[in-house]
Each structure stands twice: as structure tokens, then as C-alpha cells.
TrEMBL record:
Its main location: plastid. Residues 149-248 form the Manganese/iron superoxide dismutase C-terminal domain. It is found in: Plastid, Chloroplast. This is superoxide dismutase. It comes from the Eukaryota. One of its GO terms (molecular function) is metal ion binding. It comes from Trapa natans. The lineage of its organism: Eukaryota, Viridiplantae, Streptophyta, Embryophyta, Tracheophyta.
Length: 267
């Protein structure tokens, strides 16, 4: 796969900025329009340059909504400082590299991964993607069990939901250093699998389809759990993970992968 940081459990938001300081938010854009938008240039004001930037996207809930399992203090630091830092760092890099102008975030990650020899932009781009996906993977009323076809698919590929949870916990606690744990759909194998990646690496670089992810960098849990990573992982699975979002993601994935039976129901 081109990276020693890959293991298995078994073995954009954007805006346009110019020197006029005019900006456009994500809600003003449609998919695919980023590379086509143009900022109106005033005849009386000089505009030196127009660049595409990625914006900091808010989690889909208030920062205190995940308490007591993930605190407002953690979200303020994790999203408000560290995630913001990745966005700002990426934008500064893109200012110096207009070759990457207009890439979608997925395209940017795959291009800058460079077949396992990452360009400087890769870490910031992948961390922006990973964090957006992580915030969306949780919900204040999350946890419990998936339902309908997603549960059937998990039971088909792992033997049982309990087996899946054990593999996910084992991958999380055995990850050396910092990184991420993912439930992915392997496109070629047409099956779900738990994988872990080091640092910022994202499974889309190997053409896997992520379904959920868990941040296993120390800053994700230290305020709330100190060094008790097991409690952090357990609370994520029992109280935070959004199986509704996971179901929506695997329904979309079925547009690219024929899973056969059981078929994931749309409704």
C-alpha cells in the first residue's frame, strides 16, 4: 500500500478571498463551483490576486453538546485551536503553490500523498479532512447499535457487532504513537474492515471508503481522560458515534460498490 503506517485490525468548505477582503461562505456555493467562481473586480479598486482557500467548518452541534463524554474544553481546544491551525497552515501553503488551485479536498489529499512520498501540503490537508469527518461521525445522542442493513453488513463482515467493537477497541489501543482508527469499506474486497493509520494518513489514498473514524492523537482525549485511552474509546462507541451518519455514508458508498446481500436500505 506504500506506507508502513497502515495497519488492519486483522494483520470543502471553502471561500474566496481577495485584496478587497470580500468573502463567500460555504452556504453560498454549490458542489463543483469552487474552481469556477470569480470575484467581481471593481473598476475603481485594484484587486491584486484571487485565491481559493479552505474554510474552518463548524461541528454539527454546539461545542458543549457532547458532554460529559467529550467536554466543551476539549472541543474549544481541539476544533477551535488545532483544527483551525491545520486550515490556516494549509491556506498559507496554497498561497505559495497555485498548481493545487481548485482541487477538491479529496483530490488534494490524493495528489499531495504522492504515492507514499507526501508533499508538504499533505499533513494539513489530510488533518482538515480527518477532523471534519470526525466531528460528523459523532452525535450528542450517539452510541448504541446500528440498525437495519448496516448492522447486517457489520455482522456479515465481522461475525457479530460485538466482534466489530472488539476489533475497533483493539486497533485503537494498539495504535503506536498518534493517528486514527477507521471503519472503512474496502472497495475491491467489498467488505467492511477496521484499519488504523499513523499521523494524518487517510484511507482514501488507498481508495477505501471511510464510514466512521476516531481521533487517537493525545489532544483528542487528554483533558477528559488523561491517559485512559480505553475509557475514551469505550465512551466513543457507547455514547458518541453516529450510526445514522455511518448508514448514510454506506448508502452513498453503494453507488460505487455492489455489496450484494444484505442490501443497505435507503429508508
Amino acid at each position: 500500500m506504500g506506507s508502513t503506517c497502515f495497519h488492519t485490525s486483522a494483520a470543502p468548505s471553502s471561500c474566496l478571498l481577495s485584496s478587497t477582503k470580500r468573502s463567500y461562505g460555504l452556504h453560498d456555493l454549490k458542489v463543483g463551483e469552487l474552481g469556477q467562481l470569480k470575484v467581481p473586480i471593481s473598476r475603481t479598486r485594484k484587486v491584486s490576486k484571487v485565491l481559493a482557500f479552505y474554510g474552518l467548518r463548524s461541528p454539527p452541534y454546539k461545542l458543549d453538546a457532547l458532554e460529559p463524554h467529550m467536554s466543551n474544553r476539549t472541543l474549544e481546544m481541539h476544533w477551535g485551536e488545532l483544527h483551525r491551525g491545520y486550515v490556516e497552515g494549509l491556506n498559507k501553503q496554497l498561497e505559495r503553490n497555485d498548481i493545487l488551485y481548485g482541487y477538491t479536498m479529496d483530490e488534494l489529499i490524493k495528489a499531495t500523498y504522492n504515492n507514499g512520498n507526501p508533499f508538504p501540503e499533505f499533513n494539513n490537508a489530510a488533518q482538515v479532512w480527518n477532523h471534519n469527518f470526525f466531528w460528523d461521525s459523532m452525535h450528542p445522542r450517539g452510541g448504541n447499535m446500528p440498525t437495519l442493513g448496516l448492522l447486517d453488513q457489520i455482522e456479515k463482515d465481522f461475525g457479530s457487532f460485538t466482534n466489530f467493537k472488539e476489533k475497533f477497541v483493539d486497533a485503537s489501543l494498539s495504535l503506536f504513537g498518534s493517528g486514527w482508527v477507521w471503519l472503512v469499506l474496502r472497495k475491491r474486497e467489498k467488505r467492511l474492515e477496521v484499519v488504523k493509520t499513523c499521523n494524518a494518513i487517510n484511507p482514501i489514498v488507498w481508495d477505501d471508503i471511510p464510514i466512521i473514524n476516531l481521533d487517537m492523537w493525545e489532544h483528542a482525549y487528554y483533558f477528559d481522560y488523561k491517559n485512559d485511552r480505553a475509557a475514551y474509546v469505550k465512551n466513543f462507541l457507547d455514547h458518541l458515534v453516529s450510526w445514522d451518519v455511518a448508514t448514510a455514508r454506506i448508502i452513498r458508498a453503494e453507488a460505487f460498490v455492489n455489496l450484494g446481500e444484505p442490501k443497505i436500505p435507503i429508508a
